[in-house]
Specification:
The protein is of the alpha+beta class. 54% of the residues lie in helices and 11% in strands. The radius of gyration is 26 Å and the shape is globular.
């Protein structure tokens, strides 16, 4: 397997993947842009060290990312670009070995699978009458993975000791915090190309256990939902699966975030459901708060941006957001967001015009009668209230924003739904 890992085809594919993903630098400060040149210059020594088992990975650089709900932080470990390249090469060799054996109900970090498929499966369970969910949250999962248990699982299918030794070194490479390297005795730090596959190998044992027990479940990485018919059944399942996870897998369940509840009261991958017998997928309230918070940042009156730049930032952010949440069966949400965004932009433009004289002049140029232009140009009403006035609705209408390059979420939603 080590020769397959070091094959020219595998290494070139890994290099292209790391370059395409870009990402930040590791502890050595080397950027992705210089990776190819570095490998060309040092490949002989690098390959020799890997083949002889003397290669030593660098510690990862610790990065703290605020969680989407604003409660706490997520710890990421950024490997050097050289280590990302080697990890990617390892992952490409291991994926064909392990992925075919993974559960059909596992969707995270797997080829040709995505979160949308997981949400659709959950929706079908609700439709079939399983209208209670055991929502399990694994506490600091990536930080708690037991190295010995993981290596034992790897050794069941990987017989090349050089590959196993290299993976063990990555698990124990340490983390640099404020210039000091700390040992890593457990966990598989989020941030490297190998971590997603290793996490699925660990949690595949949980998947197999749930399948053996006959549970209906959906798992995406460390987000796991089990669907049952009654609360009583849910409580029983929660208790038994928690015992398996904590006693057998040596992981921990976050009891504060885990619950037995109605699916429409919970969030799964940013989505939720309606309580209809034929449920609809909707955008979870937490996801709506997050998108509105980001839109407020871009359209803040205090942010000194030109309208062109605001629209550019909005389009970049909302194109990805709309593409992901197109799964929702609620087009009205996209229409309401479009309307709210245009009002935010009208507010910014109204403030940008500043003086009453400028406002009157601008309104006149937009075809507003002189008496109305004078009336509204000299209004004492606040920016937000004026942004919703009939006069600005008329002068800064949908066509105005379309002509200025603002992309419509509703149009994108309709287009993607039609082709899906």
């Amino acid at each position: 397997m080590i020769q397959e890992l070091l094959s020219r085809e595998n290494l070139l594919s890994a290099l292209k993947r790391v370059e395409a993903n870009k990402g930040s630098h590791g502890v050595d400060g080397m950027s992705v842009r210089t990776l190819r040149e570095h490998i060309l210059q040092n490949w002989y020594q690098l390959r020799q060290a890997i083949e002889e088992g003397t290669y030593e990975p660098s510690p990862v650089r610790r990065v703290e990312i605020p969680k989407p709900d604003g409660k706490g932080i997520r710890l990421l470990g950024i490997p050097t670009v050289t280590d990302r390249f080697i990890q990617q090469a390892i992952a490409q060799v291991l994926n064909p070995v392990f992925d075919p054996q993974f559960s059909e109900h596992s969707y995270g970090f797997r080829p040709k699978r995505r979160g949308h498929n997981a949400v659709r499966e959950a929706k079908q369970y609700l439709k079939d009458g399983y209208r209670w969910v055991v929502d399990l949250d694994l506490e600091k999962f990536f930080d708690r993975v037991n190295h010995d248990r993981l290596m034992a699982r790897l050794a069941e299918k990987v017989k090349d000791t050089m590959v196993l030794k290299l993976i063990r070194k990555y698990l124990q490479s340490g983390v640099m915090i404020n210039g000091v390297v700390m040992d890593t005795k457990e966990g598989t730090m989020q941030g490297g190309p190998l971590s997603p596959l290793l996490s699925n190998i660990v949690l595949d044992e949980l998947d197999k256990e749930m399948e053996e027990r006959g549970h209906l479940f959906v798992r995406y990485a460390d987000d796991c939902n089990i669907y049952v018919r009654t609360r009583k059944a849910g409580e029983r399942v929660k208790k038994s699966i928690t015992a398996f996870i904590e006693n057998r897998l040596k992981l921990k369940i976050n009891q504060d975030k885990s619950a037995v509840d109605r699916p429409w009261k919970r969030k799964f991958l940013g989505f939720s459901f309606t309580m209809n017998k034929d449920p609809k997928v909707r955008i979870a309230s937490q996801s709506m708060k997050k998108v509105k918070m980001r839109i407020r940042e871009i359209t803040s009156r205090k942010k000194p941006l030109s309208m062109e730049q605001r629209i550019k930032e909005l389009n970049q952010y909302l194109t990805g957001w709309g593409g992901y949440f197109v799964l929702a069966d609620t087009p009205s949400v996209f229409q309401e967001l479009d309307s709210w965004i245009r009002r935010r932009l009208r507010m910014c433009l109204w403030k940008q015009w500043k003086k009453p004289k400028t406002k009157v002049k601008r309104l006149l140029s937009l075809g507003i009668p002189k008496d109305k232009a004078l009336e509204w140009g000299n209004t004492r009403k606040g920016y937000w209230r004026t942004a919703c006035s009939p006069i600005l609705h008329r002068s800064l209408d949908n066509q105005y924003w379309n002509s200025n390059g603002l992309k419509s979420l509703t149009d994108r939603y309709n287009h993607l739904r039609n082709i899906s």
